[in-house]
Amino acid sequence: MNLLFIISILFSSFFSNIILLPLPFNQYAYMLARETIKQHDRSIQAQNKLNSKEKVVNLYLQLLQGNEYVNTKKYFYPSRPIETELENITKSSFYQFLKLLPKGGNLHLHETQILDRKVLLESIKNSPEYDLLYICDQNDCIKNKYYLNYYKNNVPSGWTKVKDSNWTISNIIKKTTLIGILNDLKTPIYSTDAEARWNLADQHGVFNFYRDLLRYNVTRFNYMKLVLDHALEENIQLLEFRRGFFGNLFYFDENGIRISINATEELDLLLKF
Predict the structure, then answer these.
(1) In whole angstroms, what is the distance from residue 266 CA to residue 273 CA?
(2) What is the pTM of this model?
């Protein structure tokens, strides 16, 4: 089974009633632990009884919410394209406060939803793996245009070594994220046309540009560390890592050949990392 880890973290001086659970290493234990957290969250929501500190937080939240409504009543962000308004949204006081609040079992997070691609690429750039990083950008690279991968030798036709090219992190992000692709469209997609936007993401392989990078065991484990760091910043209390999301991990042998890592070997390597 793919689901391997459940990580529950408690951090807030205002909310201290979340149940901490041990780290399970099998699917059944994971399901039980996750359901326990969700049930506990639902029971708290049903009671809706705030202590004195939580009441202060709630009043402040309502104040910020009211201010946000007044400030944006003639310019409603959700009705506008996310690619043009994301910066405005994330800079607002209301958003910044929501970011600080703890997110529990029902409002949880998957690993693919939190880490900015810029952070990942900067991490790779500052690591030995940067010397192995290639991008599929040449004319004969049609099927996997702008995909990223590692190669030690036998580089396929159509791939360019990033380190020895004019590619910058900023330019790679523009080609490999949905917002970058949306901003590059000659004919914009209407902001409420969710189906067209999902189709665009699928057409360009938005969810696959970085897949092979995260299958390399060293990058994968560094990626997990970065995700955990950012989860702490976002006050996430339940974070799910799915072992098989990107496929089996691999490492390079001394000849530069990819060697697949099975689930047991991966767990052993992770515990030693």
Answers:
(1) 10
(2) 0.73
Give residue-wise pLDDT tens across range 200-234: 888 887 878 888 998 898 998 898 888 888 888 88
CB 22 within 8 Å of CB 85: no
**What are the domain boundaries of the chain?**
3-113+231-246
The DSSP call for residue 177 is: S
Tokens coding 161: 């070594």
Q: How far apart are CA 171 and CA 176, in angstroms?
A: 9
DSSP label of 170: H
- Kindly list the distances between the CA atom of residue 236 and the CA atoms of 2, 28, 230, in Å, as whole numbers in the listed order: 21, 23, 9
What span, in angstroms and rounded, lies between the C-alpha atoms of 249 and 258?
Answer: 10
Structure tokens at 77: 């962000």
| Consecutive H or E run containing 6 | strand 3-8
Q: Which is nearest to 123 in space by CA: 169, 87, 160? A: 169
The answer to whether 226 and 120 are in contact (CB under 8 A) is: yes
Note the pLDDT tens digit of each residue in 53-110: 989 999 999 999 999 989 888 887 777 888 888 888 889 999 999 888 877 655 556 6
Q: What is the largest CA-CA distance in the chain?
A: 64
Q: How many CA atoms lie within 13 A of 143 on its CB side?
A: 2
Q: What are phi and psi of 8, to 5 degrees?
A: -110, 130
Q: Please say if the pLDDT value at position 268 is more than 60.
A: yes
CB atoms < 10 A from the CB of 75, how many? 10
CB 145 within 8 A of CB 136: yes
Q: Which residue has the tokens 């209407």?
A: 190
Residue among 42, 45, 232 at smallest CA distance from 34:
42
Tell me the one-letter amino acid at 217: N
The answer to whether the CB of 209 falls within 8 A of the CB of 146 is: yes
